Amino acid sequence: MTRNNWVEGQSLPEVTKTVTQEQVNAYADAAHDWSPIHLDADFAAGTQFGKRIAHGMLGLGFVSEMLSLAFPDSWGRSGGLKVRFKAPIFPGETVKISGEVTRVSDSDGEETVTCTVVCVKPDDTEAITGTATVRI
Amino acid sequence: MGSLEPGHRFEDQSFTIDPNMAVAYAAAVGDESQLAAEGKVPPMAVIALGLSQVIEALKLGGGTIHASQEVEYTAPAQLDEPIVAITVLKGNSVRRGSRFATVETTFTTTSGDGIARAISMVIIPE
User: Fold this and answer.
1) Which chain B residues are closer than 8 Å to A65 by Cβ?
2) Which member of A23, A48, A81 has the closest CB to residue B28?
3) Which of A30, A73, B91, B97 has the fewest other C-beta atoms within 10 Å?
4) 8 Å CB contact of A79 and B43
């Protein structure tokens, strides 16, 4: 056990979200991103995805929520995140966001926790994958 | 966009997240964390609002796709505190019919104190 009780292999609190088009519309207004690929069904039909997709940053908002739940005092102050958007999230899909601690290190009086993070679609494909690092 | 070279600095942007914006963002994400419950600025809201300004400044087409994102926080953004976003083009190339653009945005207070740094890669159909 480490100073802040994080250990390698430990899971972060899982977050599950069912994304709706109403949520995507609300997110567009909240994040000021009104790109038609998220909002306009006719426009989206002509893209490689054939239909509207959720904002990648909405999925990343889910990841950030999980990290805020895991590290409430540190995530927004000393957190880092590096992710790839591997597949789009479509409205109507339920995604699971999870993470696992891969390393806990101690340096200069600060503990650093490194985790994998992943957002998985209903068919088990990965929508977002990456690594988060938080100094506690 | 096609003529811009890496190193190009876009016009500095400034925005403020007021309590209503923070609540709207948390509600849209469905954020149930303590920060959201306390009405504070959700960390990713800073990056999301900054990125939307970059998209607008770049005049990117509607088919633009977000490919990757890096984020590094140094201090929480405060409600009603102006945030300055300085964006520099880090990469701009065309591969297999699509343009890959990478931008780095530094978020600070008006007095220059760091809030966050973000690196975003987007793919723009040519």
Assistant:
1) 29-33, 36, 42
2) A23
3) B97
4) yes
Would you list the DSSP string of chain A? --TTS--TTPBPPPEEEE--HHHHHHHHHHHT---HHHH-HHHHHTSTTSS----HHHHHHHHHHHHHHHSTTTHHHHEEEEEEE-SPPPTT-EEEEEEEEEEEEEETTEEEEEEEEEEE-TTS-EEEEEEEEEE-
Give me the CATH code for the B13-125 domain, please.
3.10.129.10
Q: Is this prediction's pTM over 0.90? A: yes
Could you tell me if A7 lies within 8 Å of chain B, comparing CB atoms? no
Chain A: give the shortest CA distance to residue B49, in Å: 5
Nearest residue in chain B measured CA to CA from A81: B71
Extents of the domains making up chain A: 15-135
Q: Which residue(s) pair with B29 in the sheet?
A: none
Looking at the predicted complex, does its ipTM rise above 0.90? yes
A15-135 to CATH, choices 3.10.20.30, 3.10.129.10, 3.40.30.10, 3.40.50.300: 3.10.129.10
pLDDT by 10-residue block (mean), chain B, 126 residues: 87 93 94 78 94 83 90 96 95 91 96 97 89
Does B68 contact A27 at a Cβ distance shorter than 8 Å?
no
The pLDDT tens digits for A70-112 are 999 999 999 999 999 999 999 999 999 999 999 999 987 889 9
Domain positions in chain B = 13-125
